[in-house]
Amino acid sequence: MRKLCNLDDIALNQARGFAAKGGPILVHRDAQGVRAYRDSCPHLGIDMAWNPDSFMDSDNQHIQCATHGALFEPKTGECVFGPCVGKFLEPVTIELKDNEIWG
Questions:
Q1: Domain containing residue 44
Q2: How far apart are CA 7 and CA 59, in angstroms?
Q3: Which of 9, 17, 93, 95 is the most exposed place for a label (fewest CB within 10 A)?
Q4: What integer pLDDT is reported at residue 4 of this predicted model?
């Protein structure tokens, strides 16, 4: 594993993208912790953001696919709105060590 960033580099209820072994990932942070998913929509297999690090919807409640507006629960990766309802983002293992995110 390699260091991706410091914990404070990702604001609460936000996500950032990173290049990782196996392809791009997005890392989401909230008050309960951090989690990572492949940056690939289960509907079309495309990157989720229009612009770098633009993964959240306008209310910062869901991860959003910019191509067709699908919304995903940050804690589980489950699609709750859009053409892939019931499908999940692919989880990626990361570690939090001394306020650093490793993946």
A1: 3-102
A2: 21
A3: 93
A4: 96
CA contacts within 13 A on the Cβ side of 103:
26
Please, what sign has the CA dihedral across residues 31, 36, 40, 43?
Answer: negative
Mean pLDDT split into 10-residue runs, the chain, 103 residues: 96 96 95 96 88 93 94 98 96 96 95
Q: How many domains does the chain have?
A: 1
Which ranges of 1-103 does DSSP label H, i.e. alpha helix? none
- Print burial letters for 46-57: b (CB count within 10 Å at least 16), e (below 16): ebbbeeeeebbe
Q: Is 74 exposed, middle or buried (0-12, 13-18, 19+ CB in 10 A)?
A: buried
For residue 93, list its beta bridge partners: none
∠ CA 10-52-1 to the nearest 5 degrees?
A: 55
Q: DSSP character for 8?
A: G
Tokens 């998913």 belong to residue: 37
